[in-house]
Amino acid sequence: MTKEEFEKDWAVGAKMTIEQVQEYGMTAVPCTCGEDGCKGWQMVADLSEVVEEANRRLFEHLADPNRGPLKLEIYKGSRATGDS
Ligand SMILES: [Zn+2]
Q1: For residue 80, how far is its CA from the centre of ligand 1 (angstroms)?
Q2: Ligand 1 centroid vs 43 CA: distance in angstroms?
């Protein structure tokens, strides 16, 4: 089973589209648990990219002398689709 196949299966189980899975920062990584029924992959939250984006926006905000209230919409548009 490929990473893409596993992510697609996971999306179906979560009643999400594959685009939503990516948008919300979930990604499959190789699993070495060795348990019965393990498909060789596990889904993890890829927080690094989300945190990076949030940090970038925070520092932009802090650098703006005319800043208004901080608005963080870190999930929206923070991810390109299709890369791995
Ligand atoms: Zn496993």
Answers
A1: 27
A2: 10
Q: Looking at the predicted structure, is the pLDDT value of residue 80 above 70?
A: no
Question: 40 C-alpha vs ligand 1 centroid, how far in Å?
Answer: 5
Number of domains observed in the structure of the chain: 2
The predicted model scores a pTM of 0.57
Same domain flag for 38 and 51 = no
Supply the range of the domain harboring residue 78.
Answer: 47-84
| Residue pair 10/21 in contact by the 8 Å Cβ criterion | yes
Residue 17 has which token pair? 């589209």
DSSP string for the chain = --HHHHHHHHHHHTT--HHHHHHTTEEEEE-----TT--SEEEEE-HHHHHHHHHHHHHHHHH-TT--S-----STT---SS--
What is the model's pLDDT at position 70? 77
